[in-house]
């Protein structure tokens, strides 16, 4: 199994969990090239040609690919399957390691890398930041997770990927921070593809619109920000390299998309609301 740190090996990464068809090539922690295009409902038509075109543009032949990386979801049921199927096929044909990455984590990680590159060093070093990626799952629900990051390279998952009811999710974040006010991050960034999803949840000046009480809740609201951010396959590749360097890879035949589902309590609450609305 080749090491992704070896300069002759590159990582081919793809993600189709959203309306964005994203393909990228990374090598040794650097981005070699990437392609992003809106291709809703047409991912299966273009994914193979986009990968081939990018490899040709970057002069990276199949023999130089050391890792096949893919966004495992959650996201669009049909979309996630397309990338996973394509990645599994390539990994099997080429005899390369397959490394899956959370699509939500890739969304958050790509945003943080870009923010570090553009923010001033003084501000970037000012403390921990939470990043909450959101993908619309309809009916008041979102695919979401939470990650903490710092300029010193810290990157940690705070909440697992899941599909959650909006109001429960934001209340749980507030409760978590209220229980330990000393851990309140400098900023909490809420990301969605267009910003419209977070606009439903965040009020004026980036404050959480969900009603809450108490000083700790006010402190949480005051650090919330929102941003429109598109998933970038380069982040999938970079995260996959990190996994691979830790000795982690996935079984090509057993690998499957992560669709996630509501917790039992949330599912019952959602069903009750649907019933009462009739």
From TrEMBL:
One of its GO terms (biological process) is tRNA threonylcarbamoyladenosine modification. It comes from the Bacteria. The keyword Nucleotide-binding does not apply. GO terms for cellular component: cytosol. The keyword Transferase applies. Pfam families: TsaD. Residues 38-267 form the Gcp-like domain. One of its GO terms (molecular function) is transferase activity. Keywords: Transferase. NCBIfam families: T6A_YeaZ (TIGR03725). This is tRNA (Adenosine(37)-N6)-threonylcarbamoyltransferase complex dimerization subunit type 1 TsaB. It comes from Cohnella fermenti. The lineage of its organism: Bacteria, Bacillati, Bacillota, Bacilli, Bacillales.
């Amino acid at each position: 199994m080749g090491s992704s740190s070896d300069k002759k090996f590159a990582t081919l990464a793809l993600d189709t969990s959203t309306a964005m068809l994203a393909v990228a090539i990374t090598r040794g922690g650097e981005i070699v090239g990437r392609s992003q295009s809106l291709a809703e409902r047409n991912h299966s038509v273009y994914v193979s040609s986009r990968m081939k075109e990018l490899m040709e543009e970057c002069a990276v032949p199949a023999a130089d690919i050391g890792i096949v990386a893919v966004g495992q979801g959650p996201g669009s049921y049909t979309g996630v399957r397309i990338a996973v199927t394509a990645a599994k096929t390539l990994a099997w044909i080429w005899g390369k390691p397959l490394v899956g990455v959370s699509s939500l984590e890739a969304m958050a990680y790509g945003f943080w890398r870009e923010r570090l590159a553009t923010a001033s060093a003084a501000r970037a070093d000012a403390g921990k930041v939470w990043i909450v990626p959101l993908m619309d799952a309809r009916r008041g629900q979102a695919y979401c997770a939470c990650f903490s990051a710092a300029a010193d390279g810290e990157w940690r998952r705070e909440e697992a990927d899941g599909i959650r009811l909006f109001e429960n999710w934001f209340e749980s974040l507030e409760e978590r921070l209220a229980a330990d006010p000393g851990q309140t991050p400098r900023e909490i960034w809420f990301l969605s593809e267009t910003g419209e999803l977070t606009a439903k949840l965040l009020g004026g000046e980036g404050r959480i619109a969900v009603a809450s009480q108490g000083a700790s809740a006010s402190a949480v609201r005051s650090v919330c920000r929102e941003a429109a951010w598109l998933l970038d396959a380069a982040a999938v590749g970079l995260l996959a390299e990190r996994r691979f360097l830790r000795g982690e890879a996935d079984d090509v035949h057993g690998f499957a998309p992560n669709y996630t589902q509501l917790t039992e309590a949330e599912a019952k609450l959602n069903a009750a609301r649907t019933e009462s609305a009739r």
